[in-house]
Write a structure and sequence with these properties.
This protein is mainly α and 397 residues long. It contains 18 helices and 2 strands. Helices cover 50% and strands 3% of the residues.
Length: 397
C-alpha cells in the first residue's frame, strides 16, 4: 500500500476518474454490441455457387475461393461441387469463416486498456513530490500485470481472436487483392489500431494486445535471468520481421508463386489460440515456439514476425506520448540500458532516429539515478519538478 498512500489528491482524482472512464468505455461498447450472435449460417450446400455463398458469410468470392483452396479467378457462378468441393470441406470452411467475425465490444476494451496505460505512465506512475531516492517505488508492476491479465483474458480468451492489431494490418493488404468484403471497414480498423499506437508509444501492443500480453507475462516470470540479459540485436530482429513482411506482400500479390491471395501470416497466426483453432500444425507450432521462447526472449513473435509490430515501429516516430531522455541530465551510467528488455533505451540514450521498438513497459523509468528519463507528451518538457534536482551522478560503467 506504500505506493498508493503516496499519491497526491490530484493523482487520486486521476486514478478514480480513469477507472470510471475505462468502465464507461466498456459499458458503451457493450450497449452498442449487436445482440444477435454470429451463428454459423445454415442451408449452405455444394449445390450453391461461391457468388451465392459469399454474401451469407459476409466475405468476398475471392476470399471464399482462397479458403476452399481454389484459384482466385475461379468462376463464381458454378456450383462448388462441380469445382471438386465436398460437403465436409464446405461445412468446415463455412464454420471457419463465420468464426472470423469478431465482436465490436473488443475495440472498446482495447481503447479502455490503452487509456489506463497512458494515464498510469503519464500521471500516476510517479507519486507527486517524490524524489529520485524513492525511484524504486515508482511505476509499480502490479497495475501493469493486471492490465496484461485483462488483455489476455478478456481481449483474448473471452472475446476471441478477432479483432486484433495483427489482423488489422493483414486485412488492409488483403483488401487490395479483393479478399475483404468491406474496404472502408478494414481501413477504419487499421486506423483505429494505428491511432492507439500513436497516442501512446506502442501502447496497444504493450498494454492491450492479447498475445503480446501473454508473451510479456511469461517473460516476467523470474526464470532464465542470465539469458534475459542477452538482447537480440535490433538490426537482426527487424530485418527478419521486415523481410517476412515483404515476402508476404510478394506472395499476396502473386509476384512470387504466380497465385494471388496466399497470406503467409495465416499459417503462423498465434491469435488462433484464443479461439482454440489450430487449422494447421504450423499455427500450433508458432504458438508453442513463441510462448516457450518468451521465457527468455522478450516478445519473440512481436520482435520477429508481427506485421503490425513492424508498422507500429514506424509509427513510433510520431507517437505523441513516449519515453523521453533529458540528455542534459543523463550521465550514461547504463542503468536504463540494462533494465530495458530490448535495445530501445540504448538507442534513445544515443539519440538514434530509428530506435528499436519501445513497448512502454516502464522498466527504464524506475532505475535512472539522475532522473533523466520520463514518460510524457513530446509537446511538454516532462513531469519533473524544477525543485527536484537529480541525485549524485553515478560513474559510467
Amino acid at each position: 500500500m506504500g505506493y498508493w498512500s503516496k499519491l497526491s489528491r490530484a493523482q487520486s482524482v486521476w486514478l478514480m476518474g480513469t477507472l470510471v472512464a475505462m468502465c464507461a468505455i466498456v459499458v458503451i461498447g457493450w450497449a452498442l454490441e449487436p445482440r444477435s450472435e454470429g451463428a454459423t449460417p445454415e442451408g449452405i450446400t455444394t449445390a450453391m455457387s461461391m457468388r451465392q455463398i459469399a454474401p451469407r458469410l459476409e466475405t468476398t468470392g475471392k476470399a471464399l475461393a482462397r479458403e476452399l483452396k481454389l484459384p482466385l479467378d475461379t468462376s463464381m457462378r458454378v456450383p462448388v461441387r462441380e469445382l471438386g468441393v465436398s460437403e465436409q470441406t464446405l461445412n468446415e470452411t463455412v464454420a471457419h469463416l463465420a468464426s472470423h467475425h469478431g465482436t465490436r465490444l473488443k475495440y472498446f476494451v482495447f481503447a479502455a486498456l490503452v487509456l489506463g496505460g497512458l494515464v498510469f505512465l503519464t500521471r500516476l506512475g510517479r507519486p507527486a513530490g517524490s524524489t529520485t531516492s524513492e525511484r524504486r517505488g515508482w511505476y509499480p508492476r502490479t497495475p501493469y500485470i493486471l492490465m496484461l491479465l485483462v488483455a489476455a483474458g478478456v481481449c483474448g480468451f473471452a472475446l476471441g481472436k478477432s479483432p486484433n492489431p495483427m489482423e488489422g494490418a493483414v486485412k488492409l493488404f488483403k483488401a487490395m487483392v479483393g479478399l475483404q468484403p468491406s474496404v472502408p471497414a478494414v481501413v477504419l480498423a487499421f486506423i483505429f489500431f494505428a491511432a492507439l499506437a500513436v497516442i501512446g508509444n506502442k501502447l496497444v501492443c504493450g498494454w492491450a494486445c492479447p498475445f503480446g500480453a501473454l508473451q510479456e507475462l511469461i517473460y516476467s516470470l523470474p526464470l532464465l535471468r542470465r539469458l534475459k540479459r542477452r538482447k537480440m540485436p535490433f538490426v537482426l530482429s527487424n530485418s527478419i520481421r521486415g523481410g517476412l513482411f515483404v515476402l508476404t506482400l510478394l506472395l499476396l500479390f502473386g509476384v512470387i508463386g504466380g497465385r494471388k491471395g496466399f497470406v503467409l501470416y495465416h499459417g503462423i497466426n498465434p491469435f488462433n489460440l484464443f479461439n482454440l483453432e489450430f487449422e494447421s500444425f504450423s499455427i500450433l507450432l508458432a504458438v508453442i515456439v513463441a510462448l516457450v521462447l518468451s521465457l527468455g526472449v522478450y516478445r519473440p513473435f512481436c520482435q520477429f514476425i508481427c506485421p503490425f509490430g513492424l508498422l507500429s515501429w514506424v509509427l513510433e516516430r510520431v507517437s505523441i506520448n513516449r519515453v523521453k531522455v533529458d540528455h542534459s541530465r543523463c550521465n550514461h551510467c547504463g542503468s536504463c540500458i540494462r533494465a530495458c528488455p530490448l535495445e530501445a533505451a540504448k538507442h534513445l540514450v544515443a539519440g538514434k532516429l530509428l530506435a528499436a521498438d519501445c513497448y512502454s513497459c516502464a522498466r527504464c523509468l524506475t532505475v535512472c539515478p539522475s532522473d533523466a528519463i520520463s514518460y510524457g507528451s513530446v509537446f511538454s518538457s516532462g513531469t519533473r519538478s524544477p525543485a527536484d534536482p537529480p541525485s549524485e551522478a553515478v560513474p559510467a560503467t
